[in-house]
Write a sequence for this structure.
C-alpha cells in the first residue's frame, strides 16, 4: 500500500554513501544523517571502516555478519533488507551506511527503500563517491570523450551484450566472474579464461587491460596493474578489483548521418541569412 507524504508512518529510512576512502569522502549531509539517526546499519569494506563509523553514533550495527561462504548472496541481501525494515516498522529513524555509493552494486539499499515506501514510510537515498568516480580520477578517464560501458562481469558472460571497442569498457566483480550460485566470494582462472574468450571476440589478446582497486585509506594509493588481455585469466583478481579495457580502435565516422546533419546546418544558415541584421555580432 502506497501513501502520500502527509500520511507517512512514523519510522523512516535513509541510505547514504560514505565513499571509498576512509573519512575523506563522507559529505556533510551523509554525516548528518548518520549522527541524527536512531540506529545505523553498516555494510562497509572492512572492520576499520566500521570502527570509524562507530565514533559518530552510539548504535552502529554491522550487516557484514550476514555474509557466509556457500550462502547465496540473494538470501544475505534479503536478510539485510528485513533487518533494516524491522527497525523502521518499530518507528525508528534508520540510516543504512554503505561504502562507496549506496545505489551502486547495492541491491539491499534499493530494495529496502522500495519496500519501505511501499509500506508508507518515508525513505530516500543520498549519493556517495563510488569506485567509478575514483577510477575516473585515478586513471585519467573522461567518459564523455570516447564513451564508457559498464558491465557486471558475470552478466557479460551469461547474456549476449554488444561491446563497442571504440569506447572504454569497465568490468565489475571480475573476481567472482561466472558465479551463478551467488554463493562464492571468488572464482578461479578457469572462469576468467571464459571471460577472456568472450572479450577476445572484440579485442586482440595483446590489448592492454587495467586491473584497478580504489584506495580505502588516505595513506594508500590506487592499485593499478596493466597486463595484456591474454594474461587476465592467470592474474590474481580480487572481488574488490575492477577491470578496465581502454578503446582498441578509433571511432568510425557515420558518413550518412554526417551528411544529414550538414544538410540541416546548411538549411539553418540559409534561413539565418534571410533575417535582417543576422550578420551582426551578438
Amino acid at each position: 500500500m502506497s501513501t502520500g507524504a502527509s500520511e507517512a508512518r512514523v519510522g523512516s529510512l535513509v541510505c547514504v554513501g560514505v565513499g571509498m576512502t576512509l573519512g575523506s569522502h563522507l559529505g556533510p549531509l551523509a554525516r548528518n544523517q548518520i549522527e541524527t539517526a536512531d540506529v545505523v546499519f553498516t555494510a562497509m569494506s572492512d572492520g576499520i571502516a566500521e570502527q570509524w563509523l562507530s565514533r559518530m553514533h552510539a548504535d552502529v550495527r554491522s550487516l557484514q555478519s550476514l555474509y557466509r561462504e556457500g550462502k547465496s548472496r540473494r538470501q544475505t541481501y534479503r536478510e539485510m533488507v528485513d533487518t533494516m525494515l524491522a527497525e523502521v516498522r518499530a518507528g525508528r529513524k534508520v540510516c543504512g551506511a554503505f561504502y562507496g555509493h549506496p545505489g551502486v552494486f547495492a541491491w539491499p539499499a534499493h530494495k529496502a527503500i522500495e519496500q519501505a515506501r511501499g509500506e508508507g514510510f518515508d525513505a530516500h537515498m543520498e549519493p556517495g563517491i563510488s569506485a567509478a568516480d575514483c577510477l575516473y580520477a585515478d586513471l585519467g578517464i573522461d567518459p564523455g570523450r570516447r564513451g564508457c560501458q559498464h558491465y557486471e562481469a558475470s552478466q557479460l558472460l551469461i547474456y549476449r551484450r554488444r561491446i563497442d571497442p571504440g569506447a572504454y569498457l569497465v568490468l565489475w566483480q571480475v573476481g567472482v566472474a561466472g558465479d551463478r550460485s551467488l554463493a562464492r566470494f571468488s572464482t578461479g582462472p578457469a572462469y576468467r579464461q571464459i571471460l577472456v574468450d568472450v572479450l577476445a571476440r572484440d579485442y586482440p589478446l595483446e590489448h592492454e587491460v587495467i586491473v584497478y582497486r580504489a584506495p580505502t585509506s588516505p595513506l594508500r594509493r590506487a592499485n593499478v596493474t596493466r597486463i595484456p588481455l591474454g594474461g587476465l585469466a592467470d592474474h590474481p583478481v580480487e572481488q574488490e578489483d575492477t577491470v578496465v579495457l581502454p578503446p582498441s580502435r578509433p571511432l568510425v565516422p557515420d558518413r550518412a548521418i554526417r551528411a544529414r546533419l550538414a544538410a540541416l546546418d546548411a538549411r539553418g544558415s540559409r534561413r539565418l541569412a534571410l533575417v535582417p541584421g543576422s550578420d551582426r555580432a551578438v
